[in-house]
Design brief:
Blueprint: H1 10-33, H2 44-61, H3 68-82, H4 85-102, H5 108-125, H6 134-144, H7 151-168, H8 174-179, H9 184-201, E1 235-242, H10 245-258, E2 259-267, E3 270-277, H11 280-290, E4 292-300, E5 308-316, H12 319-327, E6 331-334, H13 343-353, E7 355-361, H14 368-380, E8 384-387, H15 393-401, H16 409-421, E9 424-430, E10 435-437, E11 440-442, E12 447-451, E13 454-459, H17 462-474, E14 480-486, H18 493-504, E15 509-516, E16 522-526
Parallel strand pairs: 5-6, 5-7, 7-8, 14-15
Antiparallel strand pairs: 1-3, 1-4, 2-3, 9-12, 9-16, 10-11, 12-13, 14-16
Length: 527
């Protein structure tokens, strides 16, 4: 029998992170199903999964030679950046609290102290802690291994203590007792601690009592719960915030007066803010006064109408373009540079659309497989999904422009597919390094004009290259040019292109959109 490890190493932490993601992936739907507190919106399992997925993405991208302290910090930082919902935000603070201690040592005694510090830090981050929740389970895990010992013993005691505490949560919180379920966030923490034990021993923890674990704690199916029936706040507001500590102290006081379920986690100038409130605008304004909020997400606890018949879900580069499509009625997901949306995030966007029928527009060739996986997952949940394989945002705009919910689903999908397919697309970017392309050798800093995904033009000036690309596209004909410009392009770029089309192609119209930050410098569509 192999000797049990005495200290955590970087590879074990990587395995723990991957194992936690896998465990939450397996149990996400069942954890969602028992989510009744603080809001019965059925997304705790998904939020925990997305939080750990962000941590796993950061760990995977980390330098392979990083030591254990750096990997643990990376895992915690990734969770902070991607924290979702109440439970995900608290979990990110637990990981951050553990990282601070484990950076000093990784034996069993340090792990026990890390769990204790993590539970204390998480409790401090919650404005009004409630027993029978993830916080209670975290406290119990820390208490069960407080005596320390070897690494595996500490991890096993923490997991067993958490599981025992989870079983007891219905007796501590009336909402759980009435529904006959345990706390969803606590169930997620049990899964994460089980993954740590498995990473150390190579053996999956024994299942808890009941039909399954952690959803085996679900003694009988919960009654149908409608968060519309509740009387809580209307919105969940979440954002990352760059701010000084003293500004965050003032922010906590202000947000506490605005709403409930307030959790503010982080430190060293970067924070994740979560609150439920009836005044989403005031919650965001409070963040603006404290520092620089970004990645702002506002979710309406919809006091909930019946699902709409049909919706369009689109992935867009840039906040401005996403806002434009949202105004046109689409449910949007912003694809930020270097952060390709996952199947879980796309599935979540389909759920947010709250529709019986959904048209999904990935708007990126690299997203087709991910979008197909999300579509299949949504279909298993009873949603009728049609995936239109749009390869660029301009194709998505063309499809959205002809969308008519009054048509039959099949007719609408055919029309949108035809509009997307009739739109040729181009993109301008800047080369990051010297490389060989289909148009020749480019140098770092060169402007690259890509037509239908292939480099067709290499230039030095963005505007001049854009004109060349546009001429090549219009040489094959066209009636409408769509130009999408990012926030950091030259001020006169769009105007120059419009004038060029008017002067050179008399029968061609031009439409200009502003993509905002995070988009490629220029997107062009020709129909």
């Amino acid at each position: 029998m192999p000797r049990a490890p005495q200290t955590l190493d970087a590879e074990t932490v990587r395995s723990w992170c991957a194992g936690a993601l896998a465990a939450l992936g397996r149990e996400r739907a069942e954890i969602d199903a028992i989510n009744v507190y603080p809001v019965a919106d059925g997304d705790t399992g998904t939020n925990l999964y997305l939080t750990v997925e962000s941590a796993a993405r950061a760990v995977t991208a980390a330098d392979g030679s990083a030591d254990v302290a750096e990997i643990i910090r990376t895992m915690a930082h990734g969770a902070l950046l991607g924290a979702r919902g109440n439970s995900g935000t608290i979990l990110s603070q637990l990981l951050r609290g553990m990282a601070a201690v484990l950076a000093e040592g990784t034996d069993g005694d340090h792990l026990a102290r890390a769990l204790a510090d993590a539970a204390a830090e998480a409790r401090k981050a919650v404005a009004h802690p409630v027993e029978g929740t993830l916080l209670t389970v975290a406290d119990a895990a820390a208490g069960a291994c407080a005596a320390g010992g070897d690494l595996v013993t500490v991890a096993r005691r923490a997991h067993e203590g958490a599981r025992t505490a989870l079983d007891a949560t219905p007796g501590q919180l009336d909402a759980l007792r009435r529904a006959g379920v345990v706390d969803a966030g606590g169930a997620g923490l049990v899964a994460v601690l089980g993954a740590l034990l498995e990473a150390l021993t190579g053996e999956a923890p024994a299942p808890a009592a009941g039909p399954a674990a952690p959803a085996g704690h679900l003694h009988h199916p919960p009654p149908a719960l409608d968060c519309a029936a509740g009387s809580g706040p209307a919105y969940e507001v979440v954002y990352l915030l760059e701010a000084a500590d003293e500004a965050v102290d003032r922010l906590r006081d202000r947000l506490d007066a605005l709403g409930e379920s307030l959790v503010v986690v982080g430190g060293d100038g970067l924070w994740n803010v979560h609150v439920h409130t009836d005044d989403a605008g005031a919650a965001v304004e409070a963040g603006v006064e404290a520092g620089r909020p970004y990645r702002i997400r506002v979710t309406h606890f919809e006091r909930r109408p019946e699902p709409v018949e049909r919706a369009v879900v689109a992935v867009l580069p840039g906040e401005g373009l996403a806002g434009l499509c949202a105004e046109a009625g689409a449910t949007t997901l912003v694809a930020r540079p270097g952060e390709t949306p996952t199947a879980a995030e796309l599935t979540e966007a389909v759920r947010r659309a709250h529709a019986r029928e959904v048209v999904l527009l990935p708007n990126d060739t690299e997203l087709r497989a991910v979008a197909a996986e999300a579509a299949e997952h949504a279909r298993r949940e009873g949603i009728r999904v049609a995936l239109i394989p749009t390869r660029a945002a301009v194709q998505g705009l063309a499809a959205l422009a002809v969308h008519e919910p009054e048509r039959s689903f099949d007719e609408d999908v055919v029309a949108m597919t035809a509009a997307a397919g009739a739109t040729r697309y181009a993109e301008l970017g800047v080369a990051e390094a010297r490389s060989f392309t289909s148009a020749g050798v480019c140098q770092a800093g060169d402007v690259l004009g890509l037509i239908e995904g292939d480099v067709a033009v290499i230039g030095r000036d963005l505007t001049a290259t854009a004109v060349t690309v546009l001429d090549r596209m219009l040489s094959a004909g066209g009636e409408l040019v769509t130009v999408v410009v990012a926030a950091d392009t030259p001020d006169d770029l769009a105007t120059t292109l419009e004038r060029h089309v008017r002067a050179t192609y008399l029968a061609v119209d031009t439409t200009v959109y502003h993509a905002g930050e995070g988009a490629p410098p220029l997107l062009i569509g020709v129909e």
